[in-house]
């Protein structure tokens, strides 16, 4: 963001759990978003999804698509395809080795390269002629109880190496902060709260006046593996999983025991739910159905897995969550031959379900302030970005802490990529990039 010099052309990539965005710097201190000609119209937001299906006419016999095209392919032929979403959430998970896709097994980095190939192809000429310097966003803290940041870095390196020889990683909220700083005309201290699908990340940046040689200085960051996907799971846990046997019992010899919650863990993570359709899991569920007190409920769970109902279920959950951002009450509706659910939910009920998550998010904001050596009253602007920043309870939490007048928002899904592209033009990237991924 320095004046009086020609900036290097760079590409910023926000590889998100739910959505991905690309931006290209113009070499003159600005940046523009890459548009994708999706089936339902052109847009700059590309869904982080993959669909695979068998096709003998394709080399290797496995065809694939990404983004909104993946969704379209899956909806046309759900029984004959494998749909993956939120696969970024396993990047730092050492327990994830590969995804079983028909007769093939693909590692995370291989899934990522397939995704990037389609991202570039659907981005048109601008995406196919990328500059050599690539700035990739990464979470401050990856998803998972014990995320391995070094493993995620190795996987990211293998995935993004196909784009160019010069790959740099920047915390995602720093990208949003840099983008927001381009709007400011006066010096300020800025807190960015980035709510993605898998993580909530926070960064504090000092912004100097326009024309200053060193316009932005990062002060501190913190993150937590709680965000939109966790909020979705709270709805699933309350409205859907009881219909699939959660909370029920099964018979073991002469005892009646609680069905372990482990059978339902995969329903809380898109990346795992999509992979439950395998012989071992289905055989285990069939055994559980035979011993369950309510075998019909387990039968419904089997039907969800066998009939690939995960996507439409989570689509209904997402619609409810978005409705509750604008209305005090909303109706949940899901209908299929195997499962039918109707429920009215109030915003107050939803906020009660996510209250423990909001508490952990608030604690992580405190940690970011602590690392920056700042108090809440020293923050001039709070920039809320990411889809879950639109949830009223999230916004109220920041208004109560920092004051309504200091809260800003806008460009919730694109600000990170825009800022990453701008950061790529910095003469000293080391101050912005993540140098050590050995710890999280």
Quick recap:
The chain has 440 residues and is α+β, with helices and mostly antiparallel strands.
What attributes characterize this protein structure?
single chain; 14 helices; five-stranded mixed beta sheet; alpha+beta; 22 strands; six-stranded mixed beta sheet; 440 residues; disordered N terminus; Nucleotidyltransferase, domain 5
Write a structural description:
The longest helix is centred in the C-terminal third of the chain and has 18 residues, at 355-372. The protein has a domain at 10-186 and 408-431: ATPase, nucleotide binding domain (Nucleotidyltransferase, domain 5, 2-Layer Sandwich). By secondary structure, it is of the alpha+beta class. Helix 13 links the parallel strand 21 and strand 22 (407-408). Mean pLDDT is 90; it is low at 1-6. Strands 1, 2, 3, 6, 12 and 13 form a six-stranded mixed beta sheet that branches. Strands 16-15-14-21-22 form a five-stranded mixed beta sheet, with helices on both faces. The chain has helices at residues 67-76, 108-122, 124-128, 149-160, 172-181, 228-240, 270-273, 279-291, 295-306, 310-326, 347-353, 355-372, 392-402, 415-423, and strands spanning 10-15, 19-25, 31-33, 36-38, 41-43, 46-47, 49-54, 62-66, 81-85, 99-101, 104-106, 133-138, 166-171, 188-195, 200-207, 216-224, 249-252, 255-258, 329-335, 340-346, 381-385, 407-408.
């Amino acid at each position: 963001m320095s004046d009086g010099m020609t900036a290097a052309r760079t590409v910023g990539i926000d590889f998100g759990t739910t959505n991905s965005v690309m931006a290209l710097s113009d070499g003159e201190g600005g940046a523009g978003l890459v548009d994708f000609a999706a089936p339902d119209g052109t847009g700059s937001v590309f869904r982080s999804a993959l669909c695979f299906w068998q096709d003998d006419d394709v080399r290797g016999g496995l065809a694939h698509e990404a983004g909104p095209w993946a969704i379209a392919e899956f909806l046309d032929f759900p029984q004959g395809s494998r749909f993956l979403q939120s696969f970024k959430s396993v990047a730092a998970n050492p327990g994830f080795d590969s995804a079983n896709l028909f007769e093939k097994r693909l590692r995370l980095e291989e899934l990522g390269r397939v995704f990037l190939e389609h991202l570039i192809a659907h981005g048109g000429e601008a995406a196919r002629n990328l500059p050599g310097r690539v700035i990739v966003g990464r979470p401050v803290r990856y998803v998972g109880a014990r995320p391995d940041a070094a493993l995620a870095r190795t996987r990211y390196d293998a995935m993004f190496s196909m784009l160019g020889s010069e790959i740099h990683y920047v915390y995602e909220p720093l990208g949003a902060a840099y983008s927001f700083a381009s709007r400011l005309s006066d010096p300020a201290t800025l807190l960015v709260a980035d709510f993605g699908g898998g993580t909530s990340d926070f960064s504090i940046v000092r912004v100097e006046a326009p024309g200053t040689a060193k316009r932005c200085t990062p002060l501190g960051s913190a993150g937590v593996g709680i965000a939109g996907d966790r909020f979705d799971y709270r709805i699933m846990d309350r409205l859907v999983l009881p219909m699939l046997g959660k909370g029920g019992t099964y018979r073991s010899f002469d005892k009646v025991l609680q069905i372990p919650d482990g059978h339902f863990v995969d329903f809380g993570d898109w990346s795992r739910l999509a992979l439950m359709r395998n012989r071992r899991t289905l055989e285990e569920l069939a055994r559980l159905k035979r011993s369950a007190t309510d075998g019909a409920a387990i039968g419904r769970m089997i039907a969800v897995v066998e009939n690939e109902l995960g996507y439409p279920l989570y689509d209904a959950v997402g619609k409810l969550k978005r409705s509750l951002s604008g209305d005090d009450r909303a109706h949940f509706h899901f209908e299929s031959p195997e499962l039918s659910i109707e429920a009215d939910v109030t915003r107050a009920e939803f906020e009660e379900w996510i209250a423990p998550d909001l508490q952990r998010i608030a604690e992580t904001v405190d940690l970011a302030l602590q690392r920056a050596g700042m108090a809440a009253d020293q923050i001039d602007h709070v920039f809320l970005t990411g889809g879950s920043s639109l949830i009223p309870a999230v916004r109220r939490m920041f208004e109560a802490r920092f004051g309504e007048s200091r809260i800003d928002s806008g460009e919730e899904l694109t600000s990170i990529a825009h800022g990453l592209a701008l950061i790529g033009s910095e003469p000293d990237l080391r101050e912005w990039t993540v140098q050590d991924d050995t710890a999280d």
